[in-house]
Design a protein that fits this description.
The protein is an alpha+beta fold. It folds into two domains: about 45 residues; about 120 residues. It is built from two helices and eleven strands. Helix 1 runs antiparallel to helix 2.
Amino acid sequence: MLNKLVLNALLSLSLAFSFAGAANATLISQDILDNGAVIGNVTIDTDDSFVWDAIEGISIVQDFTDFQIYGYDLTAYTFDFLSFDATYFHDDLAVGLDTLNFELTEQFGFFAWAGDIFSGFNDNVLTISDNSGVFIYSEQISLGNVTVPTPATLVLFLTALTGLAARRKNS
């Protein structure tokens, strides 16, 4: 009886840890602020990153998963020219993005978005323009709240529930 219980516990733990690595496709989502007010957010996938050689402990991502600013969903546009870099500390994801630099031009050239945002600074620049010229320009852009979901916790919880259900079935 005790051997079967220990065997089931070890099986459940090995199953949980095997899924935990696969489920850790970590996303970093961070607010973009203008004078302290949330004007948008950006989400990056750390699975698409690579270690940046220039600074130790920093990783860089050159594509976004989700990007919204001033009510515009930039994931809905097709870009002819895309320059996007987001850096983060790969040892501490909860810190969020260290830098966010982008220059995006919509496929037909009607909209253009550009920004250079560095964490810890409130005097970063954001420019949004259309064919007639600049219609939003701010020097008070900063990075705000960070969200880093932990999908491995969900897998562990579901494995525990499966173990409890199996135990109840055997009783």
